[in-house]
Amino acid sequence: MTGTDNMISIAVIDDHALFREGLREILEAQEDFEVVGEAGDSDGAVALVERERPDVVLLDVEIPGDDATQTVTRMREISPESQIIILSMYDGPQLLSRLLAAGIRGYLLKSVHRQELISAVRSVRNEPDRLVLAVSRDSFAQVQGGGSKVVLTDREREILELAAQALSNYQIATRLTLTEATIKRHLHNIFTKLGAVSRIDAVNKALAASLISPRRDQPAPRPRPNTPGLRGQRSFP
Fold first, then answer.
1. Given this structure, which CATH class describes domain 154-208?
2. Are 78 and 99 in contact (CB under 8 A)?
3. Start and end of every HTH luxR-type domain (predicted)?
4. What is the mean pLDDT of residues 120-144?
5. Domain covering 8-144 in this structure, CATH number
């Protein structure tokens, strides 16, 4: 760890430079906080944590490179003493559950007040066993209860299937005779339900859970011929 007994060393990880600068200003206004470095992607984040061994890592969930769960796992392996707080625009229960299992000590929505962020940093550093969450009641309840089956509305499925075809929000809105704002709102709800951090992530998770149908131009998997013990059944790779 780079911080002294009284100073809390912090690494700031986010791919938006302006957000990092604003976060640094908030943190360094505290006499006991020291920002020891910044990074904008997963590899840079891991290298920074390995070099500085900060007390606390503030990690944006959508940085380029490895997904957040993999990044957290890598950080925990090289610097298990560093306490990781996730910063996110979304609080889907599936994503939250995966990150908690990977070893994060905090999960804050980016809409939190600065004082909540400051308190969270001090809490996880001074009480390593403490968990700090600032998420919706629904997400917290689902995580506590072990999660529940994701259900998309017909409209959400329709929008996600069009998103899977790489259509823009404007194109989807035009096709469905809706406004772009409505499409964005539906996508935000979809991301939250699936614990997704991007369109591609949402589409992949929805396909894996059979919540949407594959694109029509993609051939269905073919059965393997002469599979022992499965006569009359299809076996897929």
1. mainly alpha
2. no
3. 145-210
4. 78
5. 3.40.50.2300
In the chain, DSSP finds a helix count (H) and a strand count (E) of 10, 6
Residue 8: strand pairing partners: 33
Give me the residue spans of the domains in the chain: 8-144, 154-208
pTM: 0.63
Tokens of 143: 């995580």
Q: Decide: 18 and 6 in contact? Cβ < 8 Å.
A: no
Residue 131 pLDDT class (50, 70, 90 cuts): confident
Average pLDDT, the chain: 83
Question: Alpha carbon of 198 to those of 44, 87, 126, 137, 188: distances in Å?
Answer: 21, 15, 34, 23, 10
Query: How many whole angstroms separate alpha carbon 194 and alpha carbon 184?
Result: 15
Residue 57 contacts residue 36 (beta carbons within 8 Å) = no
Angle at 129 between CA 128 and CA 130, to 5 degrees: 90
Cβ–Cβ < 8 Å for 133, 107: yes
Q: Which two tokens stand for residue 171?
A: 């194109």
Residue 236 pLDDT grade (very low, low, confident, very high; cuts 50, 70, 90) = very low
According to DSSP, the residues that pair with 157 across neighbouring strands are none
CA 148/CA 213 separation, integer angstroms = 21
Look-up: residue for tokens 């991007």? 198
Amino acid symbol at 103: G
Interior angle at CA 91, CA 206 and CA 104, nearest 5: 110
